[in-house]
User: Which sequence fits this backbone?
């Protein structure tokens, strides 16, 4: 096995805060898995499901779509090949469907190729298989699903009226075209779309655009709504040849776009563009390494701490899989070149699982020497000095309402991907509380509080917390005035509205002059005895009790008439 790892020193300022162990820390190859064997299989695109399952697609030796689905542990759940020598096709991208199947798009009818797609069900059976453009050299490169069992296919389509145009086709669940639109392609132009992602406004796509026959292509970012109407079309780059292959939304709401560039073909270099949510360029890192020829094919956020990108290093007539960790500012923190055997290897897509493990997907030659046997290749990579990770947070809701007079336990379960010991620091508003993974707080008064906990492994720190509102158990009562004067033999209705945010069971206890008379939320009482009487209700919930009392002065009717303009408090006093 051949691999190289290179670490970049970002700046002198950064070095002040890094220990020697951090500078020497490198990513670890945790495991490698190979799929296929014997007839040159490959993976290019992949998708990770919510349960951790992975699905892959690309091509086999006889130009058929190669599809594999595995569980999170890498065990094959399904493996199929679609097509033959007379019906050639290659998978470029795939997306899951609501019925646990997939839509796969790619290049149908090789040499010269057509824009095609197919749908399979959960058993791998083909539900439909279609070509959407008869133009030679058209291709589907990106697929994404939407609610309502509809799908968007993106790629490019050469037309007689213009050059190569970007194309997006919206299809129904049975493969019928809902609409199709062409974008760009003015004059002798080539406009390729390589990736599509959902956005608040509809969809955002990335590719390359430039004049045919010239080394002057740019990153192309296209925004459309759900009906295919163009919202914006922007180019990013300079006089070099630049093309984008993948984009992903960053945690700050903007977008990171990965691809490659060259001042002289074929001397490729990696490039990453960062734009804000409105499309304004924040930075465009065009990396240059004289020792390596690099292309980037995919990018994903690294749990809010920058990005992980993968691709291909074609140096010295061979190729290696390439994976790099990039900071939020686009600076390379580490990179790794991996090659199981001498030959051609590359990564085409990347994911990060719930534990922070980087999963790079691609193709690798696994036969020694000059024997060629490419297989689907999946590699688990553990980044060095990963930040701790919250496993469970209790209460899970960060906006919390708690009862006045009650108590609440706050618990954090966390782990460090690098197995480092963790420390905890709890802060309530500005007061430090403790250093365990649990605190229990009492809430005697109505208040609004902020509780934060910081979790550190000694090198990296993450934080989470709660915004707490302390609320009363008894929300309102009737009559609102708790000092009352009534006529003898009058009937009054007393009631309370109580409850906590979690709808806990409430109990009620009404008393008349300290004698229990009712245990529901309403009391109707006839005042026959002249004098002062005490009506009280006790409400209990979550081991919290609150009380409301009414002091009622019962007088003869003549007293009420003669003193009708006096306040009840005057009688009581």
Assistant:
């Amino acid at each position: 096995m051949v691999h190289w790892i290179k670490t970049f020193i970002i700046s002198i300022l950064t070095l002040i805060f890094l220990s020697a162990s951090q500078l020497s820390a490198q990513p670890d190859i945790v495991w490698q898995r190979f799929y296929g064997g014997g007839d040159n299989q490959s993976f290019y695109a992949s998708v990770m499901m919510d349960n951790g399952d992975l699905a892959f697609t690309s091509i086999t030796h006889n130009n058929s779509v190669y599809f594999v689905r595995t569980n999170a542990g890498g065990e094959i759940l399904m493996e199929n090949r679609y097509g033959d020598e007379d019906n050639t096709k290659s998978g470029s991208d795939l997306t899951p469907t609501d019925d646990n199947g997939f839509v796969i798009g790619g290049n149908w009818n090789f040499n010269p190729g057509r824009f095609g797609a197919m749908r399979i069900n959960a058993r791998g059976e083909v539900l439909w298989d279609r070509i959407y453009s008869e133009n030679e050299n058209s291709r589907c490169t990106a697929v994404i699903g939407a609610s309502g069992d509809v799908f968007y296919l993106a790629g490019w389509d050469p037309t007689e009226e213009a050059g190569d145009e970007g194309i997006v086709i919206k299809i129904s669940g049975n493969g019928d075209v809902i609409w199709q639109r062409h974008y760009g392609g003015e004059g002798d132009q080539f406009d390729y779309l390589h990736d599509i992602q959902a956005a608040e406004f509809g969809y955002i796509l990335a590719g390359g655009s430039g004049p045919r026959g010239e080394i002057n292509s740019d990153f192309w970012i296209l925004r459309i709504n759900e009906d295919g109407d163009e919202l914006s079309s922007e180019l990013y780059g300079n006089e070099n040849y630049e093309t984008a292959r993948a984009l992903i939304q960053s945690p700050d709401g903007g977008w990171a776009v990965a691809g490659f560039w060259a001042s002289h073909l074929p001397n490729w270099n990696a490039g990453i563009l960062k734009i804000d949510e409105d499309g304004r360029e924040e930075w465009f890192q065009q990396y240059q390494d004289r020792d390596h020829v690099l292309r980037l094919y995919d990018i994903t956020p690294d749990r809010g701490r920058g990005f992980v990108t993968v691709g291909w290093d074609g140096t010295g007539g061979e190729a290696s899989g390439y994976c790099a960790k990039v900071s939020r500012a686009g600076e390379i923190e580490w990179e790794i070149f991996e090659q199981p055997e001498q030959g051609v290897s590359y990564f085409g897509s990347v994911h990060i699982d719930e534990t922070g493990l980087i999963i790079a997907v691609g193709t690798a030659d696994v036969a020694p020497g000059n024997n060629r046997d490419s297989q689907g290749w999946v590699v688990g990579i553990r980044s060095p000095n990963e930040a701790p990770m919250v496993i469970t947070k209790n209460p899970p809701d960060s906006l919390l309402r708690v009862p006045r007079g009650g108590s609440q336990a706050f618990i954090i379960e966390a782990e460090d991907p690098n197995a480092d010991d963790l420390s905890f620091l709890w802060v309530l508003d500005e007061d430090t509380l403790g250093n365990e993974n649990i605190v229990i707080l009492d809430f005697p008064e109505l208040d609004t509080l902020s509780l934060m906990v910081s979790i550190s492994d000694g090198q990296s720190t993450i934080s989470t917390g709660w915004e707490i509102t302390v609320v009363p158990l008894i929300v309102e009562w009737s009559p609102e005035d708790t000092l009352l004067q009534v006529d003898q033999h009058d009937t009054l209705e007393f009631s309370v509205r109580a409850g906590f945010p979690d709808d806990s069971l409430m109990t009620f206890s009404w008393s008349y002059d300290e004698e229990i008379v009712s245990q529901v939320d309403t009391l109707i009482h006839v005042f026959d005895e002249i004098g002062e009487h005490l009506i009280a209700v006790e409400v209990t919930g979550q081991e919290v009790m609150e009380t409301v009392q009414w002091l009622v002065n019962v007088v003869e009717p003549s007293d009420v008439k003669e003193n009708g303009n006096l306040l009840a408090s005057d009688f009581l006093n």
